[in-house]
What we know:
By secondary structure, the chain is mainly β. 14% of the residues lie in helices and 40% in strands. The strands form eleven sheets. It has a nine-stranded mixed β-sheet with strand order 17-16-19-14-13-12-1-15-18. A hairpin with a 7-residue loop joins strand 44 and strand 45 (724-727). Helix 3 runs parallel beside helix 4 and helix 5 (206-216) runs parallel beside helix 6. The longest helix is centred in the N-terminal third of the chain and has 25 residues, at 164-188. The radius of gyration is 27 Å and the shape is globular.
Amino acid sequence: MTIAAAVTAATLGAAAAPDRGDAGEPAAVPALTVDLGASEGPLLYGANGALYGLSDDGVPSDAILAPLKLSTITQKPEGGAQHPNGDALTVSDSFFRNGGGDIYVMMQDIYAEWPYEDLGLDDYLPKVDSIIEEIAAHPRADRFVVVPFNEPDQIWYRLDVADTAQYERNRDRFLADWSTVHDRIRAISPTLRIAGPNEACYDRRFLPDFYRYAYDHDVLPDVTTWHELSPDSLRDFQGNHDHYRALEREIGFGPLPVNIDEYANRRDLSVPGQLVQWVGMFERNKVFADQAYWDMAGNLDGNVVRDNIPNGGWWFFRWYAALTGDTVRVTPPSPDTIDTLQGLASLDTAKRQAQALLGGADGPADVVFQQIDPALFGDRVSVTVAETRWSGYEGAHPAPRVIGRATAPVGADGTVTVPLTGLERMSAYRVVLTPAGTGAPDQPAERWRGTYEAEDARITGGEIRTHGTVADANGYATSGTRDVGSLNREDSQVEFTVEVPADGTYDLTVFHGNQSDAPATQLLTVDGGEPAPVTYPATLNWTYRGTVTVPLTLSAGRHTLTLAKGDGEVTLDKIELTEAAEPFTAYEATLADTTGAPGYDYASAAGTGTGALVLDGAADGAVFDVYAPRDGYYRLTPRHTGGGTVTLEAHGERFTAPAGQEQRVLLAAGNNRITATAAGHVALTALEVAGAGERTGLATYQAADARLAGTTELAAGPHASEGTYLRWLGDGADNTAAFTVRAEQAGPHLLIVHYANDERADNGHAYNSDVISRTLEIQVDGATTSATFRNSYGWQNFWGKAVPIELSAGTHTLTLSNPTAHAPDIDRLELAPVRG
């Protein structure tokens, strides 16, 4: 279809045209009902947590963490041997400065083996002492929660045995050890919160025994935890939660907070349409939940590309964090059913906004808003629909595209029906209601898109494989659940037949996997023409999906696109063709994060259709999350009215931004937090961002330009930009690289470091990849900036990371070093002022 979902003024308020079944009878359109009159209480934002979501300070970046307002993360004890990074105290500064809530500490991750080596309680207790003493001494100890045991039903205690007598012996051993460890923690820190019992699944045999014992012996946990790690959890969690709350009432304790501190399967992570099913049920029940750690630390469990680039999953969690007010009752077509249309919704009476997030199914659906209060919304509403799509684990996703804007009357019964068509199962959708003022909202530009699955193409020398089904839940998410691999023969190729509607330029996006530890290529031919290489960066493995986009000029009609083996090996999932257009996004001010106490004015539905944010003085502001497809200069235009002036701040640079006037601003690839404040009275409707990242003004310094000292050397590399890169930098104060750089103007700059790092630990884990970050110290004008560089999956797989630095005008010596450990390998540097 041209767009994934459609909402128009003509169809709003009326039922969508139904699909017809095989017999020609109308097929019922499923309806997801949002009852704005049935509050479920204030938003908890509990389900956005991540197990090992952070690996180091700066991985992920602050710009990625701050918008998500993470309620909880679960990490290992400081110095724990289970993984090489993700230490709770190390990541705490990054977590807390970006608005994070509580850090759960998986205490048994002090051990190296998985399952943990069972050396007895005498070995464990000294470790308990050390962990608790260190956390208790932390200035923010009140924000830590310790988890003494992890999955005791399977590890050390075997509480899951079928034999009743053996179960009782194992149970009694665990209960005695729980008491001992609980009391040991309390003796060191009477106030530190304790979580448990933390089984691998909800256990209706053991939990009554545990809680009766814990209640009788005064060793209750402060937080109840267990794991939901099966597709069946989408069906069973509600019953499990209800059973637990009934158990609390029966025994007479609580209610305790609940944290499902591991949830979801690989097939769910990074997939907006899957994540909405999990988040909806956890938020509805007001429990905390952390996504499971199936692969590597530091990427929020598959929702961040590199360390600063959103994928589709990140944008879903951004939407979740942007909900305000109370959640309201959502009734899906099939409650508690695996892989079906589900959702969550909110109502903010102060802002006069209602939002619904939904997804998980293909085809048409109606979103029915009920009990719309005329005192809040009037008799007409403005409706905005946007989509966040699955872009793979390592596929960048731009700001979600608005796919429909309209105004509609509220029915006499207080309802508005929003008909959506062409929903995609892996996507999530946001529907926003605000009061409708005068005028009509701008209609979003439609861009044709065609999707073609690799498994449906003509395949030579490859194999079709299935991943990520309910039966293969820990297989990786895959479009259509199938891909084409083993494309490693000389004649291997995949031939797609495509059809485009008009002459023009199209963006060809290839969803791929590349486990070859370096960039790989395929040869692209169009209609049998001259082959051109397509280069695929390395990904974590063959099925850890990334994307590459290249432009094609095509005439209207049918074409044959062939991807044949080049250098290395690549797995293909699907291709998409999209009409090319200059990137443009209007970020709605009334949906942005705010500072101070701004007002909301819905007198006009023109423009974005969502009204204006009223700023009165410098304390009021809007914080926009602005996506940049690459490092470069973009055109930022604020849309506002009123007698005041607007000041924008980006990467430390503050500047006046007159209404309607473009500002040329350097943005980092990925997410950029841009703040708008006002002097005087301003009605801000949007921040418009255009451009693909202009490069004029970026100065480049190649590896060969550096002056080297100590062990640092210039080495040949086939994938470095000019064939050479720096290695053996750091691991000693004398091992440095110095560049002479020039700043044409004073002020904030971005230094873009192009690097490679594939250091890993081998802890023998069956599924965790223990990737290691490296640190670089950047010294200029006597000031030192430290930056952390995530693993890039290969020593010849160069990524870019933007580091803000302050420079005076003139020539400077910029020195790279790391006195205590190896730095990443360096390909080149780019430098430019934020205002160009």
